[in-house]
Amino acid sequence: MEYTNLGKSGLQISRLSLGSWLTFGKQIEDKTAESLMDMAYDHGVNFFDNAEIYARGESERVMGKILKKKNWSRDSYLVSSKVFFGAGGQLPTQKGLNRKHIVEACHQALERFQLDYLDLFLCHRPDKKTPIEETVWSMHQLIMQGKILYWGTSEWSAQEIMEAHMFAKQNHLIGPVVEQPEYNMFARQKVEVEFSQLYETVGLGTTIWSPLASGVLSTKYLDKFPVGTRLGMDGLEWLKEKNLTPEKLDKVRLLNEIARELNISLAQLGIIWCLKNEHVSTVILGASSTKQLEENLKVIDLTHLLTDMFSVKIEQILDNKPLLPAF
Ligand code: NDP
């Protein structure tokens, strides 16, 4: 495994990490979740991603039970939670980035995980109803109390991230160190263009999500629609609509030819492509089986295969390179 600083912070994060969205506490059995964490940890993965909303708190409970059972040294791994959507409660006080919900969400996540502190606590979306100052203060206070170690954002705009930084700097508070954006061959704008200044100016780190566009960047959707996969799950029609378009599948077919030339799977190519971006601190892997995770973890030794020549070929197929604004 390779490790890198999470943005400008001193925190060392593995370049591959493991997430639990839609799998832990939902699509997969707890014993599969345990095998996934075992496999990841044995391969040097040190970051496990979670959120209050995942399976309405159940994902954190499952992960917490596994961590307790494994009894891995607490200084050998990082755990995150994310706040904003709530853990299923519909009352106005049970969501958002106001001080009340941030503090309560942190306490509740710690309880579900059975942990004393979170390594990363992320604001899962921006909250238009709460002044950014209140959010920054709340996160700073949780750090001062030792309940979280670092904080960050997810799917915030560059402007919102900058505002948080400016306020933190002016008031000698601890600002966010990380953003969690979607990043894959089909979703490039934020990581490649919108945040391009922030890597330098504020030392932004990124923990990127959906490297395989929810599995579309594999060969599974090329022929007959497979059973038992994420995009066939009830309630996820919106995700299928977003990711499984004829245009994308045409590109997936061509990308698969490149993967074949390189003698790797398309999923591996998709992950290597993300890893090659130096602004990606860690690629959060999702997997519904140990077979998938095993395949995906292998990429750490295969990144050299994606040479400039192949990157150019991929760029031609994708034909979606976002352009930096001309100054
Ligand atoms: P991916 O885009 O990699 O999708 C993972 C899914 O793709 C798996 O569950 C599996 O689904 C399929 N898959 C994985 N590997 C393979 C393979 N080798 N061959 C074939 N199919 C494969 O990542 P996720 O969307 O899961 O995102 C990763 C993590 O990022 C999440 O777990 C979560 O922690 C985080 N996240 C954060 C978000 C945010 O807003 N901050 C939003 C979304 C995710 P199946 O077997 O069912 O087809």
Give descriptors for this structure.
13 helices; 327 residues; alpha/beta; 8-stranded parallel β-barrel; TIM Barrel; binds NADPH dihydro-nicotinamide-adenine-dinucleotide phosphate
The set of bound ligands, ions and cofactors reads:
NADPH dihydro-nicotinamide-adenine-dinucleotide phosphate
End-to-end gap? 39 Å
* Separate helix tally: 13
Name of the CATH first level of the domain at 3-214 and 277-289? Alpha Beta
Report the β-strand fraction as a percent range: 5-15%
Percent helix = 40-55%
CATH architecture annotation name of the domain at 3-214 and 277-289 = Alpha-Beta Barrel
The CATH superfamily of the domain at 3-214 and 277-289 appears as NADP-dependent oxidoreductase domain
Main sheet: strand order: 3-4-5-6-7-8-9-10
The count of strands amounts to: 10
**Can you give the mean pLDDT?**
97
Going by helix content, strand content and strand pairing, the class is: alpha/beta
Q: Which term fits the overall shape?
A: globular
Radius of gyration: 19 Å
What report would you give on this structure?
The protein has 327 residues and is α/β, with parallel strands linked by helices. The longest helix is centred in the last third of the chain and has 17 residues, at 246-262. The strands form two sheets. The chain has an eight-stranded parallel beta barrel, surrounded by five helices. A two-stranded antiparallel ribbon has the order 1-2. The chain has helices at residues 23-27, 30-42, 58-70, 99-113, 132-144, 158-170, 189-194, 198-201, 237-243, 246-262, 266-275, 290-297, 308-318; strands spanning 3-5, 12-14, 16-19, 47-49, 78-83, 118-123, 148-153, 178-179, 205-208, 282-285. It is 41% helix and 13% strand. A hairpin with a 6-residue loop joins strand 1 (3-5) and strand 2 (12-14). It has a domain at 3-214 and 277-289: Alpha-Beta Barrel (TIM Barrel), CATH 3.20.20. The mean pLDDT is 97. Helix 10 (246-262) packs antiparallel against helix 13. The protein starts with a strand and ends in a 9-residue tail after the last helix. It is built from 13 helices and ten strands. The radius of gyration is 19 Å and the shape is globular. It binds NADPH dihydro-nicotinamide-adenine-dinucleotide phosphate. Residues 19-21, 23, 49, 154-155, 180, 209-215, 218, 220, 229-230, 267, 284-288, 292, 295-296 line the site of NADPH dihydro-nicotinamide-adenine-dinucleotide phosphate.
